[in-house]
Amino acid sequence: MCSKVIGRKGVGMAAERSGIFEGNDPIAIAQRWLSEAEKTEPEDPNAIALATVDADGLPNVRMVLLKEIEADAFVFYTNFEGKKGQELAAHPRAAFVMHWKSLRRQVRVRGPVERVEDAQADAYYASRSLQSRLGAWASDQSRPLESRASLMAKVAKVTATKGTSPARPPFWGGFRIRPVEIELWADGPFRLHDRFRFVRGTDSQGGWTAARLNP
Predict the structure, then answer these.
(1) CATH node for 8-128+171-213
(2) Which is deepest, 28, 43, 86, 118, by most CB within 10 Å?
């Protein structure tokens, strides 16, 4: 669990972090901001731009949907055999940014990545629409596709063979990012933005140290 205790630097500026920045746990603040964005953002307030790296160290960035904020981690789901799944298996570290135009705020996260437990992935998969569950079986994510017609033919074949209650594909599941660094950003007048960077401590308590950054 993420400690509520933060380092001495963070305590020194606790009073400055009031209003939307109030609190010593940046994950809890991110959850609060997402809850606000769900009321104001017109589409997919949980969309994140997720960055991974390939075998040559070249970054890849794409939009995915964040499905859960845990006490000490952020969770999303994907095809393990797709580009991002392969890159995360080879280099289990990632970063993402979540930006809301309606709130004029963003959250940046970096940290190591691990797979979500099977039971948790099964539960989320079962909560998806039937069409999405069948689509997970039909798509060879990131690999060349002859045509959309061939994809839809594969969906029809999967529908006929898997029925109305398909099990989770073994090649599909969740990833959990355990952040070691989180930056909270809010737009300010004349580009004088508010930025706070939280770094997770390495001691047994695993608390957070906070620092204000220049815009």
Answers:
(1) 2.30.110.10
(2) 86
Q: Is 142 annotated as a binding residue?
A: yes
Helix axes 130-138, 118-127, angle to 10 degrees: 120
- Please list the residues that pair with 60 across neighbouring strands: 52
pLDDT band at 18 (very low <50, low <70, confident <90, very high): confident
pLDDT band at residue 19 under the 50/70/90 scheme = very high
Residue 191 is a catalytic residue: yes
Q: Is 52 annotated as a binding residue?
A: no
Out of 105, 108, 110, 191, which one is annotated catalytic? 191
8 Å CB contact between 51 and 95? yes
Ligand-binding annotation for 193, yes or no, is yes
Give burial (CB, 10 Å; 0-12/13-18/19+) of 135. middle
Which tokens belong to 90? 């080879």
